[in-house]
Amino acid sequence: xAKGLKVMLVAARHEDGADFEVFLTATGYxxxxxxxxxxxxxxxxxxxxPDVVVIDAPAPDARLLTKIESLRRVRPRPIALFCxxxxxxxxxxxxxxxxxxxxxxxxxxxRLASAIDVAMAQFGETSRLLQERDRAATxxxxxxxxxxxxxxxxxxxxxxxxxxxxFMRQAAMNKNLxxxxxxxxxxxxxxxxx
Length: 194
Known about the structure:
This protein is of the alpha/beta class and about 190 residues long. The chain has two domains: about 5-130, Response regulator (Rossmann fold); about 135-194, Winged helix-like DNA-binding domain superfamily/Winged helix DNA-binding domain (Arc Repressor Mutant, subunit A, Orthogonal Bundle), CATH 1.10.10.10. It has seven helices and five strands, in the order βαβαβαβαβααα. The chain has helices spanning about 15-25, 40-50, 60-75, 90-95, 110-155, 160-175, 180-194; strands spanning about 5-10, 30-35, 50-55, 80-85, 100-105. The protein has a five-stranded parallel β-sheet with strand order 2-1-3-4-5, sandwiched between helices. It is elongated. The termini are far apart.
């Protein structure tokens, strides 16, 4: 997994960043950006387009979490955060801002690769769950539209529920539309004609 993976390093201390860069490069990662926690993380990530972001900071303070949140909104990436803090509230705030893996304690060469692996795996799983949630929400919204349109067809054409559904399905096939698209058109037309 490490081979060629692009990493952006964010280190509170310049010498830590340099040490981590040497280690990551030696183990097959490509360090494409290095910055301090005071920098604009979203802008830096936009410039260097990393696959993963590794942050080593003394604490997940509000300022840093705001920058991570901005990064997550603009350019979602797996983020491994090493920090001295680790209370339940700090962990919840960090995860809520977009951190994929929070590792208590200072970053070390020995822990970098496994932290990146954890962040990548967690980010992938979270992304999969969000896509699944979005598909379910879309399907539910579409189902509601279909039910509403079916009611309109039943009323206008004097059909029972099954016949209205068959009518809609046939009309959708004839027009090469998804049933949800047809339902939205039926509802729009009914609202327009009142």
